[in-house]
Structure formats: C-alpha cells, structure tokens
Amino acid sequence: MTDSDRIPPYDPSEIESRWQRQWEADGLYRSDVDESATKYYALTMLPYPSGDLHMGHWYAITPSDARARFKRMQGHNVMFPMGFDAFGLPAENAAIKNNIHPRKWTYANIERMRGQLRTMGTMIDWRREMVSADPEYFRWNQWFFLQFLAADLAYRKKAAVDWCPSCNTTLAREQVIGEDRRCERCDTPVIKKELAQWFFRTTRYAEELLDFSGIDWPERVRTLQTHWIGRSEGARVRFPLAGVDAGADAGGVQELEVFTTRPDTLWGATFMVVAPEHPAVEVLTSEAQRAAVEAYVEKATRRTDVERESADREKTGVDTGGFAVNPATGERIPVWVADYVLMSYGTGAIMAVPAHDQRDFEFARKYDLEIRPVVANDDGSIPDPATMEEAVPARGALVDSGDLTGTPADQAVAKACEWLEAKGAGVGAVNYRLHDWLISRQRYWGTPIPIVHCPTCGPVGVPESELPVELPDDVEWKPTGESPLKLHESWRFTECPKCGEPAERDTDTMDTFMDSSWYHLRYLSPDYHEGPFDPAEYRYWMPVDLYTGGIEHATMHLIYTRFFHKACRDLGITQGDEPMRRLRNQGIILGEDSEKMSKSRGNVVAPDALVAEYGADCMRAYLMFFARWEQGGPWSSTGIEGTVRWLRRVWALMLEPEALYPEVAESADASTLRALRRKLHQTIEHVTRDFEELSFNTIVSALMELANEMSTAVQAGAVGSEEWSEAASVYLRLLAPVAPHVAEELWQRRGHDDSVHRASWPEYDAAAAAEDEITLVVQVNGKVRDRLTLPADVSEEEAKEKALASEGGQKFTEGLTVRKVIYVPGRLVNVVAS
Which are the contacts of 689, defined by CB distance < 8 A and separation ≥ 6? Predict the structure, then answer.
C-alpha cells in the first residue's frame, strides 16, 4: 500500500461552496475606511464580459487574489475589488449576428462570469462592483468629458482615421496590429477614412508621461511607453512656399514646417518631400504636374503606413512642380510628394539632406536631385557628391554652411537652433511620436458623447443636470458603416441647450479605454451620486498600491490611465502625480502544444471542467506553481495531478497524520524537532519574501518541501509535540492565501473558532531558522579541494585551522609555502600557497 492510498479524500465541491457562502454571509472581505489601519489597495485589471472566464482570467486573478490575502493577514486593510469592462464592439457584433440586444447579451454574460469569479474563492468585495455599461457609471464618463472640454483638453477636428470595414468602426492607432495593419478584433485589413473626430490632448502630457521616478513599474513597460511616446530633440524650421499668395486657396497654407533632429544640416537641404495627404499638395502642384500628382496620391493612400515606411521598399515620388525657400540659403528648392512621408508622424513634411541621410540619398540618386555635403568627414575631408555611393555620417565640422561654417560637431545643433531663432526661421523644439487620444467611435454600445451640434451655436455640451445621456434601446442593426444612433431620429434630433433651436446630438460614442481609465476610482464608492467618487474614500485608498494585469496594455490602457489621472489632477479632481504605485504583469498561458490558446487551434483548456474535477483550490495552487507568473508557459494537464496529491497529503497531515504510515515512532528526539522547527521558520522567511515579490511558483514549492519535512517528523514521532502544533498552525496560515477553502476547513477542524483568513501572518524567528551545521568549501589557489561539515557558529580561526588540516588542504599545499588564508564566513576558506 502506497502513502497515497492511505490519504483520506476530501470533497472540494462541498467544502468550497460552503465556505464561499459563509464568507459572504460573514462579510469577511468587506473593505471599509478605517483610519486606524494601514490601507492596501490591490487591483487587478477588470475583464470584458465575453461570457466565460478562460484560463487567462484565472491566471491573472487568482495569484493576485492570493497576494491580496497575504497582505490582509499581515494586518493591512485590503481592498480587492472587481468589475466589468462592459462596453465595446463584441456586444454590438453579437447584436447584428444573433439578433440580441447588446445590453441583454452583456448583462447575461456578466451574471455568468460573476458566478465563476465567486467559485475561485476570491476575496473580492462585491459591494464595490462597477459595470461600465451602467448609466450611473457612464454618466461620469460624460461628466469628465465636459470637464476636459472646458479645460481645452478635449477638441474636435477632421482627421484621417483607421477604419475597419468589417467592424464598421474607427480604430485607435493601438488597435491596428501587425505589419499589414489589421484590426485587432477581427483581423481585417484597415483602410483610411476622413471623419470629424473628438480627441483628448494626451500630447500635452508627453513629457510628464516619460517620468517614471515616482512609481515601481517593470522595466519593459517603461521601455515600451518611452518608445511609444518617442521624444526627440531638434528644431522646427519654416520653409516659405515660393510664389504662393496669402489668399491662395490652400486652406491658408503658405509655408511648410518640418521638425528635424539635425538643424545643423539645413544648408544641405536641396529638396523637400511632403506626404500625399498634406494640405499644401493642392497649392504646390503645377498644372503640368497635376495629373501625375493626383494619380500618385490616389495610389499612395491605399497603402498602409507600415508599407510606406518600410526601409526595404523602393522609394517613389512625384515632383509637384512647386518650390519652397530654404531659409538658410535663400534658394528655391523643389517640393516632391512621396508616400514614405506620413501625416501621422511629425508635420507631414521633411527637408531632404541627401548627402547625410541614406533615405534622402537614394531618392536623390533615383530622381537626379542635387546632393550637397555640408558636414566634413571625421578626418576633415569633404565628400565628393559625384562619387558618393551612400550618405555619409554627419559627424564632422560644418562646411559650406554660411555663418556656421567651421562649427564643431558637438556644438552644431545648438548653434543652428540659435541661428534659426535669431533669423525668425525656426525654433529649438522637442517632438513626440505620441498622438492625441482619438476617443470617437462610430458605434452604438458605448458612452454617448454629451455634445449637441447646433447650426447657430456650434458644438454645445449637454448640461450636467441632464446627464447621463442614455442610449436608446430601440435601434436598428444595419452594417452600414455608420453608428445606429444616426438612424434613430427621435434620439438624434433635439434642442440646443443654449438657444433652444433645433439641433442634433453627437452620434459617436466614446472609446472603451475611457471606461478603463478611471474605473479604479469608481470602485472607491460605486453608489456615490455627488461625483465620480467619494472624496473621503479617495483620501484613504488612493493611490493603488499594486496593479496587476497583462503587458499587452502597456501602450494603450496604461498610458491612457496615467494621462487621465494627471489631467484630472490639474483640474483639481485627483491628487498626486500617478494613479498606481506599483505594477506587475503576468505572462500568458499557452496550450499544451505551446501555441496561444484559441478555439480555432482546438487547444483551449476550460477552467470550469477542471474546477468540477479537482476543485478551485487545486486550480489556484497549480496556476501559481506550474510556471513563473510573469513569464507564463504551456499548460500541462498531467502536471495538475501532483498538486492534487500535495493537497491530499496536507489534508491528512493536519487531520490524521499517523494514519499515513504503518509504523510511527513513539516520540521524536530533539534533533528531529529542531529540524522541523528550523524548516518551518526557513519556510516562513521564504514564503513571506516571495509573496512580497510575487514569486508565486516558489511559494508553492516551499510549502511542498515543508509538507515533506512534516511527513518525516510524523514518522519520527513528532505528532503531539509543541513543535508539531506550531508547524500545523503556521502551515495552514501560509497555505491560506493559496488554497483558502482547504486551509479554512482544516483550521476549523483543528479547533479554531475564527477564520484562518483573520489570523495573523506568522512571524519569522531567525534563531530558529539558523542551521546547526554548515558546509565549508576548502579552496587552494582558487580551486575546490575539499568540503567540511562544521558547526554553524565556528570561529574564523577554527575554520582556517580545519581547512589547513583537511585532507585536501594538506595534499594540495604539500611542498608549498602558505602565503595567505582567506575566510568567507559560513561559505569557504581559500588557501593561497606557492
């Protein structure tokens, strides 16, 4: 008979459901303001209500829940809330496909997922739940929008946007994925479309968003955000258009502005290139070139930005026939239109310096444009344009550069900026890749933008007293590419709040990233009606102490929520510079084939079936154990059996340990009890440290090792001793965050009246954890020659004597003179001899 056969089974389904009901009835996880306690706001990213919790939800939520439980047992007043990111395109697509209203589809899914979250055994305080599709939530989306509008943080302009022809909606830059620019939702290639859109001025906060000094966020996230914001220093330079009158019909365009990081090469700018979408193309194009330019522009706008920017693709362009004036030389230089220049980055125009930029060099050679070196080589020589085979690095002193000729390379950029400002031709500047946040969506299932468009008054904000502007239920679902709200006349047509004349509501809804930018604030007081949150709750709970979620949100949600907090701070709504002190990201669970889980691959593992078979505690423990949480890895269905056996062993160790073995000693000797207590306190130190650092897999492995030590102690007769009682009590407290149901049941069966989750976290005793003996490595001239087992409190003098007297020490110093003996306490002795 094996040990496993002697372990009595337990029924996880009965235990878990019973304790979940009891915890709810007792209000065990209520998180109220308590000024006498240290708060801890633990937050994990809220799910979209797709209908079922998948393995990714479990992997994100249960380890985060375990850590929140740990902090609570340490004595913190912990808030661990949950809600649902309930607006968005999937619900609208389901409405069209299945003829079901998005609200009905969404709330049915929420009800199912809420039940699944409860089966996890989480410490969620459900009184704080928020649902972004609730009018009482999106009312405050609209309120924030109006505050931003009044502060000039929200504005409307016509812009070319990425449009998904399948989803029939605008996509944010971040929602277009892959080199072939596909919709992240449906994988359809996107196209460009010109629409009037609402934006938030995220670029106003670009510099501050680059400052991570006040927060503990992963290096990878900081790097991704830094790259996305894309700060570069240089100058903005103005090139007047030659021969363009002030009254020219080009939208007032009379000059081209460029941003360049190398204003010192301005004297080498021999032509300019503008994007096909640039408003100056119309006025620049001569009649002789108009047909060629229009054909080129039409073809270029069908290409994706990635295609146009590709370094491997041959550069093409067309001469507009127009000219600009180089402010440094006073020369008229030709202006070309080329698709490798984009309106989405910079100003949509560049000055071309072919002698010192490879892309410009290739373009100039192809179209026989002038190449003019203005920076010397490192050795002081000047490149010959006639024989150059590629652009040369601009690293030497300036040549042929007017007043700046001879300026050393390390002074050239600064001197060029000073020259431009003195001439009124430009100014030193900082540029960013970051764009203003496009929040308009041509969808129904989202927060209505609280604007009325009046023919007389223009865009007018809906009065706060009339919020929320709710969605009409009776809409028609037609895949026309327009919002269904445009077809709802009784909702669309209204009166202007200013003049009372007929007007129209804005039929766009807000990007769902608006919902997730401040949901952590609504958790503070979801039933508060005087504002988006209760100020007293804010003062106590904010900022978030630990935020957990996927790194895929690094350049979307995590930038937007930081911007939102900073903008609200400046409006006096929030305090402090950052919403979340600490961030940690979990990895991704792959299928057993090491591919990303998806229904199409047939490798999805359903959590519900595993919970039914093994219980939630086993699932929680295995998800924490099978891989490093921040890395993830391929799922193994066979691996979970080891976790099952471990929990069954713990069950038996706590209830009838001596029944595990056919023979057990009558009583344990002192060394056995000392070894048990030593391992116990080493485990306390280990598990405490790893919970702080979110190293979940080593927490579970440490608990498994301690269970093995306890099993050894059982056979040696330790049951009934003070050391055994201490070990059992500590073990269940260490186990409680990982397997809350099993720990609670065993805690109660061992005679405790209160919940294990109200028990204090065990204290580490360094003296108890100290080893009685150490293994001392003996080296001779840096090479290991022996190992000695010595008392842990061995003195330096004695350690050196033992090392020199050891077999290896004597053998490898024979015939040599010992010059020095180096002792590293508790680790090694190195004998230096020659």
Answer: 695
The C-alpha angle 784, 785, 791, rounded to 5 degrees, equals: 90
The region, left, alpha or beta by phi > 0 then psi within -120 to 50, assigned to residue 555 is alpha
Q: How far is CA 176 from each of CA 179, 189, 200, 446, rounded to the nearest angstrom?
A: 9, 9, 19, 20
Q: Distances from the Cα of 493 to the Cαs of 174, 270, 355, 377, in angstroms? A: 33, 55, 59, 68
* 666-678 confidence digits (pLDDT tens): 889 999 999 999 9
Count of CB atoms situated within 10 Å of the CB of 220: 12
d(CA 702, CA 707): 9
Distance, in Å, from the CA atom of 583 to the CA atom of 560, rounded to the nearest integer, reads 15
Distances, alpha carbon 586 to alpha carbons 44, 56, 591, 594, 607, in Å: 11, 9, 16, 17, 18
AA identity, residue 45: M
Q: Which alpha helices (H) appear in 542-615, and where do they start and end?
A: 557-570, 607-614
Own/partner long-range contacts of 712-715 (Cβ < 8 Å, ≥24 apart): 712/672, 713/668, 713/672, 713/673, 713/675, 713/676, 714/653, 714/657, 714/658, 714/660, 714/661, 714/664, 715/661, 715/663, 715/664, 715/665
Other residues' Cβ atoms within 10 Å of the Cβ of residue 597: 20
Phi-psi region of 527 (alpha: psi -120 to 50; beta: other; left: phi over 0): alpha
Q: 411-438 pLDDT, tens per residue?
A: 999 999 999 999 999 999 999 999 999 9
What is each CA distance from 153 to 162, 225, 441, in whole angstroms? Answer: 22, 21, 18
Pick from 483, 652, 469, 526: nearest CA to 9: 652
Please say whether the beta carbons of 205 and 563 come within 8 A. yes
Are the C-beta atoms of residues 132 and 551 closer than 8 Å to each other? no
Looking at 165-231, which runs of residues are DSSP E strands?
A: 169-171, 176-177, 182-183, 191-200
The two structure tokens encoding residue 206: 């670009």
The maximal CA–CA distance of the chain, rounded, in angstroms, is 109
Say if residues 51 and 112 touch (Cβ distance below 8 Å): yes
Residues comprising the chain, all counted: 834
Amino acid making up residue 210: L
Q: Which residue has the tokens 């809220």?
A: 46
Looking at the chain, the whole-number percentage of residues with pLDDT higher than 90 is 73
pLDDT in tens, 568-616: 999 999 999 999 999 999 999 998 888 887 766 778 888 999 999 999 9
DSSP strands (E only) in 132-183: 154-164, 169-171, 176-177, 182-183
Q: How far apart are CA 686 and CA 705, in angstroms?
A: 11
Residues in contact with 801: Cβ distance below 8 Å, sequence separation at least 6, in sequence order: none
- Which H or E run contains 39? strand 39-44
Burial, 766: exposed, middle or buried (Cβ in 10 Å; 0-12, 13-18, 19+)?
exposed
Strand-strand pairing, 317-325 and 332-338: antiparallel
Burial of 382 (0-12, 13-18, 19+ CB in 10 A): middle
Mean pLDDT of 274-284: 92
Which of helix, strand or coil describes residue 699? helix
